[in-house]
Structures are given as C-alpha cells and as structure tokens.
Specification:
disordered C terminus; 11 strands; alpha/beta; two-stranded antiparallel sheet; 7-stranded mixed β-sheet; 57% helix
Amino acid sequence: MEDHVTGAPTIGIGRLLKEEGRFFIPHHQRDYSWTQDQLEQLFQDIEETQDIGQSEYFIGLMVFMPSEQQRAFTILDGQQRLATTTIVLAAVRSWLKARGFDEDANQIHDRYIADRRLGGRDQKPILVLNESNNDAFVRHVVEESPVDAIEEELSSLNRYDPNRALLEAALFCRARVNEIGSLDGDKDRGAERLYGLVEYLEDAVKVVRLNVQSEVNAYTVFETLNDRGLDLSVLDLAKNHLFGRANDPTVLRDMQGRWTQMTANLTNVKADDFLKAWWMSRHGRVQNPQLFARFKERASSMPAAAEVSRDLLPASEKYAALEVADDPLWAEYSEKARERVRNLKLLSAQQIHPVLLSALEKFAARELERLLHLLEVLIVRYQLVGGGRTGRLEIACARLAQRIFEGECLTASQAAGIVKDVLPNDEQFRDNFKTKQEKNTQKARYLLASLETQARRANMGANAAELGPSRISLTLEHIFPKNPGADRLINPSTHGCHSIGGNLPNGHAPQGSSPVTWCTMGDPSSL
C-alpha cells in the first residue's frame, strides 16, 4: 500500500477546506444522504466535546486523489462529511449576516465556502458535489438562498429526489445554528458561541487525510484499507474493485456511467442486498463474509469486470421492481401476478429475490406467473406458518435460481421439484397451522383473506372473485376484539373457529393475549 500513498496527516476538517485547495466529488459517487439523526449526532458530539474541554474530536479517514489542476483533489471517501461541514459553516455565515456581522460572515464564506483566485473575477466553490447535487448545492448553500426558497424547492421534490436529503440538511443546519446562536436572546453572545463552533471545526474536528496517486491504484488501496479496519460496504468494495480493474480510461468511464445508473435504480432498496441476490441468481449461494472474495475472483480481469458491470445494470432495474407491483416491469403480466408480487412483499420474502432475478431473465411470462404462485405457497407454508429456518430456505432458493439461470430449470413445475425438500406437504401444513400464532396484523389479514377466498372458490367457482374479501377494508377487531366484552366472546366449539395468535379454551382469550379467529370455510392446505 505504501507505494500508492503520499501522506496521511491528521488535519482539522475546516482547515482542510480553508488551506488545501479545491475538492471534487466524482459523478459516479453517491448523492448526499445524511439524515437528520446523523446531523443532530454531529452537533451533539461537537457540543459535548466543547463542554468538557476535549481538544480533539476525530471523525475518521478521508481519501483523496490529486487532480491535474493545481491544488485540486478528487474525493474518494469522505464526501458526506466534507459536504456536511460546508453546510454547517454556510448556516453560520447566514446567521451572522442576518444580524449585521457582515465582515465575519464574509470571512467564513471566503475561507471555507468559495474563494476567488488571484486575478480572477468570480468566486468558485471550494467543494464541488456530484452531477445530481451540485446545482442545488451552489444555489442554496454556496450562494445562500433564503430559508423560504429552500422550503419552496423542497416541497416540489418527490420523496426519492437526489436533492431531498441535501435541502433537508440545509434547513436543519440553519435551524440548529439559529438555536445555538439564540440561546439567551443576546446576538453578541450568540455570535461568540458560533465563532467557537467555527474554530472548533477548523482545528479540533480531526480527519486523517490519505492521498493516493492514481484512480486505478486508489481502489486497490481501498481494499487494503478495508482489510485494516476501514468500514466500507460490500457494494463500495465491489465498485472499487471493478474500477480498479479498468486500466483503460474509456472502459473506466463506461463503468462509472453504468454504476451511476445502477445506484439510481437502487435508491429505494437496500443496495448491498441487491449484490448478494444478483450473485446467487447467477452463481448459487454465498454467505455474506465470502461475497466480496467471490466477487473479486469473478471480476479478476478488465474484460471480466466489464462484463460484470454490463450485467449489473439491467439486473438492478429488475431488482428494484421485485417488490413494486405497479412498476412498468410487471405491465405485461396479469393482475393476479401483480397481486402475488404485493403478497410476497408483505410476507418479507427476501430469500426468493435471486429466483425472480433469474426467472425474469429466462422464463416466459406465463411460466413466471406460475413461479410466483409457487413462491407464494412456499413462503406461506415453509416460513409464515411453518416457521422454517431462513438459512435452509436461502440454500434452496439459491440452488433454484442458479439452475434457472443456467437453463436447467425451464418451468414452474420443474422448479417445484427442486424446492420440494423445503415445501411442507398438506399434512405438515395442517399440523403447523393448528399451532400458528401471528402477531403481525397485516399478515393475519392476509391469511384470513386468502383462506376466505379459497373457500369461496371451492363453493362458488368463477363468481367467487367478485365477492371475495378485500384486505384493504378487512379488519380483525370485529372478528375478535383485543378487549372484548362478555357479550362478544366467541366460542370455537359452537362457531367452528380456530385461533391465530392464541388458543381459546371454553371461548375465553388467555390472559394477556390478543387472539385472532377465523371461521373454517375451507381446507387451509389449499392455500
């Protein structure tokens, strides 16, 4: 690692912004994402360390690569902390300026936020964010928008807009700085407290600054650092490894572009879960500690890394749609198939994701719909009612996913044969159901509605769907209330009812329990 590292001094994060040059976040890096909880924790930590007289507050390692421009650096790790520091300093500048401390406000702006090169006309931001965030960052942080302008733009953004977290952070820091500066209503004393905050950020909030000499070598350094304790996610490591294999600039740019699109696809899901599901859909089961090592073996050369990169992008689009029944991916499928997608999400069926990733690649639409039915039955029988171990289910699903992807399994019927060892038969299912307890109201409603629908189909045939129960409107309280009066107790011996969530001996709920009953209008094994 020493061959690639030029220095690792400890420095105050404010001084880093003030003296070390300009910093650029690559386009493929993730968007600003700090939450209110993380921001509040930072403020609390700084306040506590200041109160007890602690001279340093260490916030971790930052990794930079020198740019071709003089005194300019690409941020490889640390962009969230550096952006947050800038947002806090900008909030202090705004507070001071609003109360007539113009000279101090301008000094903060020139030192930490934007400066003018000698002989230049315009001020340039010291920190440049990625393509998604930079425009909003410049308008609302660097150039100091009023609060109502930030609020107006924030109100127009959808829940998953890449700038939502950034604008929420700007508003939170404005409010938190205002709180610090207005503790006793004296603006001079408030300004002194904020001067102290700025000084603490400049020299006491410490980072270890690590410089690496090239982009290719940087990703190898990342892997080494992770082995020595740097906390990187598996997806971060995978990205670093792929980019590190790309010793051709064109290939690297293509990989970075695909990675940016992929991370955008995964905005609303757990990205690390995607990488494991993708791997198992192609190569069979892998446990979390071995995932990155296996990934490195698979993408060990530039051609192999490029192939993996090309495969990950379309797979991410499919993965993002696995639990979203109204995603365009499911448009060509029937309403019944989309209902099964919703059911599988309700059942928290993470283990079947590799199977669906493979099947979406290899199965015709009709066979995929049959597979969705099989997977719903499997999850209900094995996991929801049977309480089976998730590890065993994951092994079975990974085996099925790999065989589908390799073309050894072509139909849902063949898939049923592959998972038969974990699919409880009718007798096992009946026995498990007799003692089933379900505390999750949504899952209890699901069971009730499914059993009722199946019973109606058995008794009424094709007309059953029109009269079937809706889980949206179905409630449990009218069947068995949590706190029933004596006149509302149900006696299973006279009403033909069974219990989900507790037994009902002699028609009474056990002390402290909240049983849910359903009338036996059909065979539970037909679910």
